[in-house]
Amino acid sequence: MIKYLFLHVLLSVVFFMFWMSNTNLPGGEVGMAPILFGCLLLVQLIIGIILSLIFSKKLTTANSLLIGMIIYLAIYELIPLFMGSEPSLLGIFDSEPSGETNRAFSLIPFVSGIITLRIIGIRENKRSE
Length: 129
Prior knowledge:
The protein has one domain (2-21, 30-128). By secondary structure, the chain is mostly helical. The protein contains 4 helices and no strands. Keywords: Membrane, Transmembrane, Transmembrane helix.
């Protein structure tokens, strides 16, 4: 499970940096967004690793890996609540530059998570055959 967590973080960073290179946001947004995104991913990764080590005996089948990954993706959306902010998912419809940042913060990990879930499904189906 831990390798899938690292895969998700790697895909998220690659997609986020691609978005950063193609955005037209002002300098302050561009300068601070990678730091905040990296902090969020680091907290999510640490929590995910701890939970996957605690539940390593239960994360053996394809279904349990998929459920574990979905919980891992939900953790990312809940982290801002514990930091005293609102989840970035709630601000994706803003028309301000912060709305574009919120869309990137919410949708990039979501897309990376879908790709990771698909990879888990393919690998576990091949393993079971």
